[in-house]
């Protein structure tokens, strides 16, 4: 009987043990590999976002300076003026490491940051913060799960110290994350309780296994936007760098790409995403509001982490295509009030590197589609980002205010002339 069982299950057991040995043999220490790093930096995929080893490897590379560019779906718009294309075409001293795509928000970025805290300590970063994130029902477990890996949760548990930010992050995690092996420990953190020595040992053991698995699988099948998109687009840039000529090229490319619609948006985007439903979208966005959302509380998690890591960050606030605003009925006043609320949350805490492009959605070829920067918009962003990353910057002095975790702030709706005195009180 034993022999028969061994013949049935023995090969399977040996295969499992062999896989475990191979995975555990993978080196979890990030080693420089520029070709892999270039691909990972422009992949804009959940695979890269979830991988600790790929982020750590690139951001630790002493020979090549990769800078984290946090954002969402704008990074997919890879034209000739995209930040990665400009950095490549003009051989700049830095390369953007693009983090985020459609569906990523402040909470996903906060947990993603837990995997690379040593790599952002005392460094710089760029963060595109879109008012469209700040919707009323910002609790989307499905979107969160796309970008979440167990390693992020384990790193958070390992890093937490019982602060209000830790408690709030754990509470938000339990709201949006799927049931898993770490949820009981998350509940303890959410309730302000300390983890036991055994739980801490368990976190380290589980994290070791997860990191070995990450190191083994992370380099497989990374989307190659670098060779397919960034390099070809960089050939369109005038040489050497000349801002005036660059603007002319951007305008020309915008003109060529927006010939089949009245909104000044990219032809391909219009054909795929707008043409079929255009009539039904008239006045469709009248009721949208970005002024009240738990996303403001989630955003505070990101700011607290940047402050704790002493990271010098430039924030960019994009506009919406004005022709699209007029057609869909999106309230421009509401949009500007939400921008004002975001800016107050930033500047009142010492995050003063803010590029507000929110009023530029009516400029020619500034937007590639309805809500994303393109051509001249990318250049306007680059006018601020490139000097920020290449010239010496004073280290900001942050003044973190935990009141931004309160529901009162999430629900606060500013007026056009608001100085936020009611919230201060």
From TrEMBL:
Keyword Nucleus: no
Record key words, sorted: Cell membrane, Membrane
Superkingdom assignment: Bacteria
This protein's pathway: Cell wall biogenesis; lipoteichoic acid biosynthesis
GO annotation, biological process: lipoteichoic acid biosynthetic process
InterPro entries from the UniProt entry: DltD (IPR006998), LTA_DltD (IPR023896)
GO cellular component assignments: plasma membrane
PANTHER family reported in the protein's UniProt record: PROTEIN DLTD
Family under the similarity heading: Belongs to the DltD family.
NCBIfam families in the cross-refs: LTA_DltD (TIGR04092)
Name of the featured protein: Protein DltD
Gene this chain is encoded by: dltD
């Amino acid at each position: 009987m034993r022999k028969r069982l061994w013949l049935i299950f023995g090969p399977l057991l040996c295969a499992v043990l062999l896989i475990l040995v191979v995975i555990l043999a993978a080196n979890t220490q990030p080693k420089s590999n520029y070709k892999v790093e270039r691909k990972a930096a422009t992949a804009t995929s959940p695979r890269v976002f979830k991988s600790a080893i790929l982020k750590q490897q690139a951001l630790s590379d002493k020979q090549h300076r990769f800078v984290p560019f946090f954002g969402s779906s704008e990074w997919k718009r890879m034209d000739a003026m995209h930040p990665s294309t400009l950095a490549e075409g003009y051989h700049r001293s830095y390369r953007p490491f693009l983090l985020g795509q459609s569906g990523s928000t402040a909470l996903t970025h906060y947990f993603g940051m837990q995997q690379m805290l040593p790599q952002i300590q005392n460094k710089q970063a760029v963060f595109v913060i879109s008012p469209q994130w700040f919707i009323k029902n910002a609790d989307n477990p499905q979107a969160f799960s796309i970008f979440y890996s167990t390693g992020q949760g384990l790193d958070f548990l390992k890093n937490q110290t019982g602060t209000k930010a830790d408690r709030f992050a754990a509470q938000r995690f339990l709201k949006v994350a799927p049931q898993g092996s770490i949820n009981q420990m998350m509940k303890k953190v959410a309730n302000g309780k300390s983890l036991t020595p055994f739980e801490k040992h368990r976190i380290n053991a589980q994290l070791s296994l997860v990191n070995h698995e990450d190191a083994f699988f992370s380099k497989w099948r990374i989307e190659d936007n670098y060779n397919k998109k960034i390099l070809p687009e960089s050939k369109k840039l005038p040489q050497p760098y000349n801002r005036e000529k660059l603007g002319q090229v951007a305008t020309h490319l915008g003109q060529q790409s927006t010939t089949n619609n009245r909104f000044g948006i990219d032809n391909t985007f219009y054909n795929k995403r707008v043409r079929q439903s255009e009539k039904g979208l008239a006045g469709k966005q009248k009721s949208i509001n970005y002024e009240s959302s738990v996303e403001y509380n989630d955003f505070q998690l990101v700011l607290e982490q940047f402050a704790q890591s002493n990271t010098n960050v430039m924030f960019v606030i994009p506009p919406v295509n004005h022709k699209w605003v007029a057609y869909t009925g999106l309230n421009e006043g509401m949009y500007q009030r939400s921008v004002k609320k975001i800016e107050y949350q930033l500047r009142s805490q010492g995050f003063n590197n803010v590029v507000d492009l929110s009023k530029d959605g009516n400029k020619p070829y500034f937007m590639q589609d309805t809500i994303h920067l393109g051509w001249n918009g990318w250049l306007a962003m680059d006018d601020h980002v490139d000097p920020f990353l290449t010239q010496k910057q004073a280290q900001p002095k942050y003044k973190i205010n935990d009141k931004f975790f309160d529901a009162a702030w999430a629900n606060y709706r500013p007026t056009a002339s608001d100085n936020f005195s009611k919230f201060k009180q």
